[in-house]
C-alpha cells in the first residue's frame, strides 16, 4: 500500500518595500539547508491610477522612507497638486526620485532643460528644453491663482509658491515652483522663548526655513497657548493661497495684504481692529514696516517676525532695519568718560529700546543661535565685544541639544578666524563632542590645501583661546 500523501504545505509570501531586519546566525543556519532552493524576486513597486496612468507617489513613499525622508501629514496630496502643473513626462520623473518628500522646487526656464532641486543637488528632468506650451500649461491651470505685483501666485489650500520671470513685454519666460510644507515640531527649539511671551525675531538667509518655523510658532501660540493670534500674510506664504487658510496655522487668523507696499498699514490695522495678543509677520524689509513693528511692540503685543540676514550685525548695519534693534547713534564722550571706558571719544551706542526681546539666527534647519537678550547683544557688538548666545541643535532622534556659550570680553570680530595645529584642534573637537553629545561640526572647519597641515576654525561668535 503506497504511503499517504504528505499534508498540503501552505506558504505565506510577504513583500515589503522596506529593508528586512537581519536574521540571527543561528536561525539562518537552521533554515539554509542544501535542500532549500533560494530564488530572487524582483518587485516593481508601481501602483496604477485610474485610466492606466502610473501613480509612482505611493511607490516612492516606501523608497523615500527607506532613505530616511518622511512624509508629513497631508503633504503627499499637496505635492501631487503641484506636480500636476508640470508636463506629464516631467512629473513622472520627479515622482520616481528617492528624495521626493524633500523636493525643494522645480525650475522651468524657456529654452532650457527643466531642473528639480533636492537637498542633495539639482536633478535634470529632461533634455528637452522648456517651451511656451509648457509654461502656458502650468500658469493656465485651474488650481493656480492670479499673479500679483510681486509675480507670485499659489495653489488654493496649499503652501506652494509659483514665482514668474517675465521679459520686457511682460510675458512669462520662466517659473520657479517652490514646495511649501507645514512641518510639525519645526519650532521646538524655540518653544521656551515663545512660551515666555517676549517678542521674537528670526534671522536667516533665504531658503533656510524661516517661514516654516514662523508658521509653526503661529500654530503653537494659537493652539498650545490659547492666544489670539493674527498673521499678516503678505505673499500668502504663511497661511497659503486662497480665502481659506492652510490648516498648518491652526486656529490663528490671517490678514492678507493686497499690495506689499501696504504691509505696514495692515500691521496697524490688525492691532486696532482685531485685538490680538500676538502678531506674526514674515519678512520685515522696509523702514515703514520696522516702524510699524516697533509701534506694535510698544503696545504690549507679542510680535514674532523674520528678517533677511545672517547675523545680528547685518541688522545693525542695515539703515532700514536698525530700528528693530533699537536704532544706532554716534555719541561723543568726554575725556574722563572715554578714559574710563578705554575707548575713543566718538562711539556708537544703541539709541533706544529694541523692538524684540530676543532673537534667533537660523544657521540651518537643525541649528540655531539664540540671543536671549537682544539689547545686550547689540550693546556688546557696538562695544566691540562678543555677546553671549546659545547654540541649539536637533539631535538625530529629534531631541534638543543646547550649549550655552559664555565669551570673554574681546575686540575681535565675530567672523575672525583662528589657526590651530591639527592635533590640538582634533583633541578640542573630541572633548566638545563628548561633553555635549553634539553632532560633528565638520561644516565649520576648513582644511588647508597648502603644504602645512593646519586647520582654520571659523568661530561663530565664540572665542576659542589657546
TrEMBL record:
SUPFAM superfamilies named among the record's database cross-references: P-loop containing nucleoside triphosphate hydrolases (SSF52540)
Domain of life: Eukaryota
Entry annotated with the keyword Zinc: no
GO MF entry, a single one: ATP binding
Keywords in alphabetical order: ATP-binding, Nucleotide-binding
InterPro entries referenced in this protein's UniProt entry, alphabetically: AAA+_ATPase, P-loop_NTPase, Spore_III_AA_AAA+_ATPase
Residue ranges constituting the AAA+ ATPase domain according to the UniProt record: 196-327
NAD recorded as keyword: no
PANTHER family named in the record: KINASE-RELATED (PTHR20953), P-LOOP CONTAINING NUCLEOSIDE TRIPHOSPHATE HYDROLASES SUPERFAMILY PROTEIN (PTHR20953:SF3)
This protein's name: AAA+ ATPase domain-containing protein
Record organism: Zea mays
Gene label: LOC100274315
Amino acid at each position: 500500500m503506497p504511503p499517504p500523501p504528505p499534508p498540503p504545505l501552505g506558504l505565506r509570501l510577504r513583500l515589503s518595500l522596506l529593508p528586512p531586519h537581519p536574521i540571527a546566525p543561528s536561525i539562518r543556519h537552521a533554515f539554509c539547508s542544501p535542500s532549500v532552493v533560494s530564488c530572487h524576486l524582483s518587485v516593481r513597486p508601481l501602483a496604477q491610477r485610474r485610466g492606466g496612468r502610473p501613480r509612482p507617489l505611493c511607490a516612492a513613499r516606501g523608497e523615500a522612507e527607506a532613505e530616511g525622508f518622511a512624509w508629513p501629514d497631508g503633504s503627499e496630496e499637496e505635492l501631487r497638486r503641484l506636480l500636476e502643473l508640470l508636463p506629464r513626462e516631467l512629473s513622472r520623473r520627479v515622482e520616481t526620485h528617492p528624495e521626493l518628500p524633500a523636493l525643494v522646487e522645480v525650475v522651468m526656464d524657456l529654452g532650457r532643460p527643466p531642473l528639480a532641486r533636492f537637498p542633495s543637488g539639482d536633478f535634470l528632468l529632461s533634455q528637452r528644453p522648456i517651451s511656451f506650451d509648457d509654461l502656458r500649461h502650468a500658469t493656465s491651470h485651474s488650481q493656480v491663482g492670479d499673479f500679483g505685483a510681486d509675480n507670485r501666485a499659489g495653489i488654493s489650500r496649499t503652501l506652494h509658491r509659483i514665482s514668474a520671470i517675465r521679459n520686457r513685454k511682460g510675458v512669462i519666460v520662466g517659473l520657479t515652483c517652490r514646495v511649501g510644507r507645514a512641518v510639525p515640531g519645526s519650532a521646538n527649539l524655540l518653544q521656551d522663548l515663545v512660551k515666555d511671551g517676549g517678542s521674537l525675531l528670526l534671522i536667516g538667509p533665504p531658503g533656510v526655513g524661516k517661514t516654516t518655523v514662523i508658521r509653526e510658532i503661529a500654530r503653537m501660540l494659537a493652539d498650545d497657548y490659547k492666544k489670539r493670534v493674527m498673521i499678516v500674510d503678505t505673499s500668502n506664504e504663511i497661511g497659503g493661497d486662497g480665502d481659506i487658510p492652510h490648516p498648518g496655522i491652526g486656529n490663528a487668523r490671517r490678514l492678507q495684504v493686497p499690495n506689499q507696499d501696504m504691509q505696514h498699514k495692515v500691521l496697524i490695522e490688525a492691532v486696532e481692529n482685531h485685538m490680538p495678543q500676538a502678531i506674526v509677520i514674515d519678512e520685515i524689509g522696509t523702514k515703514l514696516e520696522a516702524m510699524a513693528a516697533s509701534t506694535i511692540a510698544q503696545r504690549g503685543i507679542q510680535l514674532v517676525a523674520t528678517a533677511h540676514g545672517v547675523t545680528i550685525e547685518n541688522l545693525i548695519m542695515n539703515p532700514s532695519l536698525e530700528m528693530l534693534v533699537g536704532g544706532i547713534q554716534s555719541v561723543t564722550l568726554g575725556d574722563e568718560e572715554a578714559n574710563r571706558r578705554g575707548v575713543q571719544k566718538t562711539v556708537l551706542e544703541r539709541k533706544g529700546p529694541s523692538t524684540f526681546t530676543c532673537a534667533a539666527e537660523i544657521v540651518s534647519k537643525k541649528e540655531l543661535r539664540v540671543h536671549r537678550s537682544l539689547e545686550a547683544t547689540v550693546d556688546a557688538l557696538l562695544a566691540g565685544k562678543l555677546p553671549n548666545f546659545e547654540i541649539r541643535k536637533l539631535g538625530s532622534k529629534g531631541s534638543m541639544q543646547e550649549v550655552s556659550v559664555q565669551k570673554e570680553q574681546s575686540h575681535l570680530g565675530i567672523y575672525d578666524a583662528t589657526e590651530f595645529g591639527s592635533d590640538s584642534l582634533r583633541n578640542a573637537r573630541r572633548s566638545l563632542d563628548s561633553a555635549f553629545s553634539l553632532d560633528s561640526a565638520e561644516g565649520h572647519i576648513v582644511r588647508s590645501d597648502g603644504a602645512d597641515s593646519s586647520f582654520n576654525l571659523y568661530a561663530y561668535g565664540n572665542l576659542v583661546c589657546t
